Amino acid sequence: MLLYVYLGLVLFLLVFIIRNMVREKNLFNQIDAALVIVPLILRLLLIK
Fold first, then answer.
1. Dist CA 17 CA 35 (whole Å)
2. Dihedral angle, C-alpha 34, 16, 10, 6, nearest 10 °
3. For the chain, how many structural domains are there in total?
4. 9: exposed, middle or buried (Cβ count in 10 Å: 0-12, 13-18, 19+)
5. pLDDT tens-place values along the chain, 48 residues long
């Protein structure tokens, strides 16, 4: 049960970071967001 709550929080965070990355105009901020997205996707897929 706790795993599903954790995965839900990770997914919630991923959606907001991706949304922010798409709206951002500065390339360096988009790259920073992409660097944060990669580990979160790996966590969502349960790859550590």
1. 11
2. 170
3. 1
4. exposed
5. 999 999 999 999 999 999 999 999 999 999 999 999 999 999 999 997
Q: Could you give the CA distance from residue 17 to residue 34 in angstroms, rounded to a whole number?
A: 9
* Tokens (6 digits) for 23: 């709206």
Q: What is the DSSP letter of 1?
A: -
- The DSSP code sequence of 2-48 is HHHHHHHHHHHHHHHHHHHHHH---HHHHHHHHHHHHHHHHHHTT--
Domain span including residue 37: 2-44
Residue 23 has a CB neighbour count (10 Å cut-off) of 9
